[in-house]
Design goal:
Layout: E1 2-4, E2 11-15, H1 20-26, H2 31-37, E3 42-45, E4 56-58, H3 60-72, E5 78-80, E6 87-89, E7 96-104, H4 107-128, E8 136-145, E9 150-159, H5 160-169
Parallel strand pairs: 3-5, 4-6, 7-8
Antiparallel strand pairs: 1-2, 2-9, 3-7, 8-9
Helix pairs in contact: 4-5
């Protein structure tokens, strides 16, 4: 189901929840490693594959964002779930900001980080914008609210400045 934010060209797609344990097993993690990853606050996951190979594509934007977030929010436990079969860094040549999937293993982590995501996206937008040319952003977030027994898996896509604004105002706790 696709929704559009009011007065915005940003698409907000409501996706089915990710089966994290299954995905991590498919990436080659053992039960003990999966248990350790699920105790983190935030996981970065790359769903992209490179052509017909089984290798994941990790973009520099994803790595930069994870690094800056870990430096800024030192109290949060953050990790990247790489595919153990291998991955490659993929430079995007188009004018897009692609981050992949960020899994927040609690709604509290989402509430703490959404402003940081918004600021980071806007700074990337300003830094990469060329004249009047539009710069797009794509970001998936999965937020697990264990207290309410709900999982939100959303995909934001559209002009980077508008995606930043929508994420800043997002309230999933309703």
């Amino acid at each position: 189901m696709e929704k559009r934010a009011k007065n915005s060209s940003v698409s907000l797609e409501d996706l089915p929840p990710i089966d994290l344990e299954k995905m991590l097993r498919e990436k080659g993690y053992s039960s003990g490693e999966i248990d350790a990853l699920l105790k983190k606050d935030i996981l970065f996951i790359s769903p992209k594959k490179i052509g017909s190979t089984s290798k994941e594509a990790i973009t520099p934007n994803t790595l930069d964002f994870k690094k800056l977030l870990a430096q800024e929010k030192k109290d949060l436990k953050i990790d990247f779930a790489f595919d153990k079969a291998g991955y490659k860094y993929l430079e995007l040549l188009s004018a897009e900001i692609y981050v992949g999937v960020i899994v927040f293993l609690s709604i509290t982590a989402w509430d703490i980080v959404k402003g940081f995501i918004s600021s980071w996206l806007y700074a990337k937008y300003v830094g990469m914008k060329k004249g009047s040319k539009s710069l797009n952003a794509q970001l998936e977030v999965e937020v697990i609210d264990a207290k309410k027994g709900r999982t939100y898996h959303l995909k934001y896509a559209g002009p980077a400045d508008e995606v930043a604004d929508i994420i800043k105002k997002a309230d999933l706790g309703d």
